[in-house]
Design brief:
- The structure holds 2 protein chains of 2 kinds.
- Chain A is of the alpha/beta class.
- Chain A has a single domain, classed as Pyruvate-ferredoxin Oxidoreductase, domain 3 (3-Layer(aba) Sandwich).
- Chain A contains 8 helices and 6 strands.
- In chain A, a hairpin with a 7-residue loop joins strand 2 and strand 3.
- Chain A is globular.
- Chain B has 4 domains: 216 residues, Thiamin diphosphate (ThDP)-binding fold, Pyr/PP domains (Rossmann fold, 3-Layer(aba) Sandwich); 149 residues, Rossmann fold (3-Layer(aba) Sandwich); 173 residues, Thiamin diphosphate (ThDP)-binding fold, Pyr/PP domains (Rossmann fold), CATH 3.40.50; 57 residues, Alpha-Beta Plaits, CATH 3.30.70.20.
- Chain B is globular, with a radius of gyration of 28 Å.
- Classes of the chains: A alpha/beta, B alpha/beta.
- The interface between A and B is large, with 57 and 59 residues.
- Strand 2 of chain A pairs antiparallel with strand 8 of chain B, so a sheet runs across the interface.
- The complex binds iron/sulfur cluster (SF4) (2 copies).
- One iron/sulfur cluster (SF4) binds next to helix 22 of chain B.
Chain lengths: 200, 629
């Protein structure tokens, strides 16, 4: 067994937490795990890609191109940027929300929202584009976007860990006063995830 | 056995704790910082000393002092930090140590966040010191412990060199019991600790002798292992993290060459290599950065008169620049296997190494992912997401003020290492140079001596100032340089993850009762023009910039304001759509990532940290403060 997940987002969106909890859930189920991040030099605002591998007989942490079973995107354009990691027929779980970089406001580049969405939908049939920004706000904070999407992921069939284990690890990793909010975010994501699953 | 999810650097720290480390010292630098960060966390509980030293040379000397007494000590740094610590290291190799001394140097092939891709394994060979090259956090932890034992056996410092992919990889790591350091260390007086030329000569003989003994010792090290396939005449040798890529590539390609994993690249263990020679006609060496293993292997083949074809960096098969990964290694191995076909073998090998161009072509070929795209996708243009200074970063205000003042004077702005290097990015376009820690000040001095009519302004961060800025400043005063030094004092070492420095009220492990006052140092060094300003106050900042640049001689401006990553905003700013004329001056001049364009007007987003600088730039007074309480 080997499950490869690539997480794409912008610094400050909690991709490192997402990769850590996925790995910990995998460990709780008795698997070997590997994670790593590619972070630019900025503290915030830069692209961040995390790699998570769960399974047996693992070597490095970097997921090769076209090998990710799941592409997990916290931000729309960043999801597209990591598209070459997705395996043919793989699953995309992504936030349709955007973080518009300063370069766009300055007129140095463009954010072509519709074409980006289309490129995601064209690549694989199994795309779950979610308005995670809105769901996170409903749960109580824009900071829970990552947990909303983990909830969506938890609805997938055939994961190598239990949904409850994933939720528990998440709740153990967030500050005490944010536990209820994160649980709420996870459940909201999960509900949406189930609807995607039903459609399939 | 308990398992924990540990990053390579955390695993190294735990390895040191399990080995009973008594002193750990470091200057932060990506990708090494988490080693001593973790140790600082554990120090109070396990009763050892952990510190952020002011620079890498100091860190290594502190650790070696402890090791002279018989204690186990560790120093950590990034690869370019070793350049700063090279002086004590080279001499320590001669003088030796008593307690185990492990030097963790994290390399950064890529590079992701460094000035160079230098290979610390090569540095180890230059210093004639043994080096371990871990392929995973688990192995890194075991290697730290083995390194302490080896260090004590040979009385030499031992280097552990993770690369970014090990240092920042997290894995399920098996935990063992921690050992508390004992307390009865004692420095025994002995002339052997005093490095005289006559002693150096004698020690050099011993050091050279140790090279052979170490290679012999490493022949039996569990970190090197050979899996022979008697059916195959081909072998692959892989050092450190490259081993992972080779194993995964062989799995993907369903091939079974003999594989020699190297965990101690210098000195190269002789026995497993000789065993490989005995079985193989062709060997591929896969390693990142320099051909450290490959060159030693070629030497060995030559000495043994082994009839082996060696492929790697010397024939351009494996790229010398950048990181490897599974995709690249698959392409490399495929090309290596293809080469054995008779028609290829007929090709003279020098055709491949003839020219730089030839090497580059092969390098490119190797780095190109084999284009077997099973599904194709076209990407629309994606927005540029270059790293930028945070919304409300005080450096942005400092740069803006100096830019406004210096613009008409054709001033040169030299830079240094830190978040503020991002000041080069548009629209600020500040900082005309960046070389290495401390060079902003000193290069400005050099320029000022040959461009007398021009203004030279050096920017340096607070942590960098303590690291290596002070000697430069003293040099400026002593040699009467007409320059302005701007100390961007944001009260932290921001870029590496907010470590403290001597100017702050805390150390690595607790409170610092005597923070060192930067202004006091500047004055004590004889600088007569000193201004301390809050960069958020643009008017005052511009005034200070103007005066400093008009001053004849060494002038210092201290721009003091905490890094926004450390404070919670109490206010934020909004643009009044009725007053805003859509001139976009604020946006175009500052490039704050909290500002965005909404049709014709400028809007301020949630990530505004409330610095209020844009409000001072707006000519219409359209930006207003709102309380967040
Ligand atoms: S006040 Fe203006 S410059 Fe400062 S963070 Fe907010 S938007 Fe950016
Ligand atoms: S972390 Fe601090 S110093 Fe670095 S860019 Fe952000 S505000 Fe500036």
């Amino acid at each position: 067994m080997k499950l490869d997940i690539v997480i794409a987002g912008v610094g400050g969106q909690g991709s490192v937490l997402a990769s850590r909890v996925l790995a910990q859930a995998g460990m709780a189920a008795g698997w070997e795990v590997r994670t790593t991040e590619t972070i630019g030099m900025a503290q915030r605002e830069g692209s961040v890609v995390s790699h998570v591998r769960i399974g047996s007989q693992l070597y490095g942490a970097l997921v090769p191109d076209q090998q990710a079973d799941i592409l997990f995107g916290l931000e729309l354009a960043e999801t597209a940027r990591a598209l070459m990691k997705l395996k043919p027929g793989g699953v995309i779980i992504a936030n349709q929300g955007k973080v518009v970089p300063a370069s766009v406001s300055l007129g140095l580049s463009v954010y072509a929202e519709e074409p980006i969405r289309e490129s995601l939908c064209r690549t694989t049939k199994r795309v779950m584009l979610v308005d995670a920004d809105a769901l996170a706000m409903e749960a109580g904070s824009s900071k829970t976007v990552n947990v909303v999407l983990l909830g969506v992921l938890s609805a997938l069939a055939g994961l190598p860990f239990r949904r409850d284990d994933l939720l528990q690890v998440i709740l153990e990793s967030v500050p005490k006063k944010a536990v209820a909010m994160n649980q709420e975010a996870f459940e909201r994501g999960r509900k949406i995830g189930v609807t995607f699953h039903d459609r399939k | 056995m308990e398992k924990r999810l540990l990053m390579g650097n955390e695993a190294i720290a735990w390895g040191a704790v399990e080995a009973g480390v008594a002193v750990a010292a470091a200057y932060p630098g990506t990708p090494s910082s988490e080693v001593v960060e973790t140790l600082a966390h554990l120090a109070p509980e396990y009763g050892f000393h952990a510190e952020w030293s002011v620079n890498e040379k100091v860190a290594l000397e502190v650790a070696s002092g402890a090791a002279y007494t018989g204690a186990r000590a560790l120093a950590a740094m990034k690869q370019v930090g070793l350049n700063v610590a090279a002086d004590p290291l080279m001499s320590l190799a001669y003088i030796g140590i008593k307690g185990g001394l492990v030097l963790v140097v994290a390399d950064d092939p890529g590079p992701h966040s460094s000035q160079t891709e230098q290979d610390t394994r090569k540095f180890a060979a230059f210093a004639k010191l043994p080096v371990f090259d871990p392929s995973s956090p688990q192995e890194a932890k075991e290697m730290v412990k083995a390194a302490f034992v080896l260090s004590e056996e040979f009385h030499l410092p031992v280097i552990l060199r993770p690369t970014t992919r090990t240092a920042h990889m997290a894995q399920d790591v098996a935990m063992e019991t921690a050992n508390l350091p004992t307390r009865d260390y004692r420095f025994e007086k002995d002339p052997k600790w005093v490095i005289f030329p006559s002693l150096s000569y004698k020690k050099h003989i011993l050091l050279n002798q140790a090279q052979k003994d170490l290679a012999e010792k490493f022949s039996h090290s569990p970190f090197n292992h050979l899996v022979l396939n008697p059916e195959s005449s081909e072998g692959i040798v892989a050092s450190g993290v490259s081993y992972n890529y080779v194993m995964e590539a062989c799995e993907t390609l369903s091939i079974h060459p003999s594989i020699l994993k190297i965990g101690t690249p210098y000195p190269l263990p002789s026995q497993p290599v000789l065993d490989l020679f005995a079985h193989c006609a062709r060997i591929l060496v896969v390693e990142e950065q320099e051909p450290v293993v490959e060159d030693q292997l070629i030497q060995m083949a030559w000495k043994e008169e082994a009839k082996i074809e060696v492929s790697g960096k010397q024939d351009g098969r494996v790229p010398r620049e950048g990181e490897l990964n599974v995709d690249k290694v698959i392409a490399i191995i495929k090309a290596f296997l293809r080469q054995r076909e008779p028609k290829d073998l007929a090709q003279p090998p020098h055709a491949r190494v003839q020219s730089i161009l030839g090497t580059m072509e092969t390098t490119e070929a190797a780095s190109a992912v084999e284009a077997a795209h099973e599904h194709s996708f076209e990407l629309p243009p994606l927005p540029l997401r270059t790293p930028v200074l945070c919304a409300g970063c005080p450096h942005r205000a400092s740069f803006y003020a100096f830019k406004e003042v210096g613009r008409r004077q054709d001033a040169v702005f030299t830079g240094d290492i830190g978040c503020y290097t991002l000041g080069t990015i548009p629209p600020l376009d500040m900082l005309d140079t960046c070389l290495c820690m401390g060079a902003g000040v000193t290069q400005a001095i050099g320029m000022s001596k040959v461009e007398p009519g021009r203004k030279h302004v050096a920017f340096i961060g607070d942590s960098t100032f303590f690291h290596s800025g002070i000697p430069g400043m003293i040099n400026a005063v002593y040699n009467q340089a007409d320059i302005t030094i701007v100390i961007l004092d944001n009260r932290t070492t921001a870029m590496t993850g907010h470590q403290p420095h001597p100017g702050l009220e805390r150390t690595a492990t607790g409170p610092n009762p005597k923070p060192i006052d930067i202004q006091g140092i500047v004055k004590a060094c004889g600088v007569e023009f000193v201004r301390e300003v809050d960069p958020y106050d643009l008017k005052a900042m511009k005034e200070a910039a103007r005066e400093a640049m008009a001053y004849k001689g060494t002038a210092v401006v201290i721009a003091k304001r905490e890094c926004v990553a450390l404070v919670k905003p109490e206010v934020k700013y909004v643009v009044d759509p009725k007053t805003c004329t859509g001139c976009e001056l604020c946006l175009k001049k500052l490039g704050c990532p909290a500002m965005a364009k909404d049709k014709t007007l400028v809007v301020i987003q949630d990530n505004c940290s409330g610095c209020g600088v844009c409000a001072q730039v707006c000519p219409q007074n359209a930006v207003r403060e709102v309380s967040l309480r």
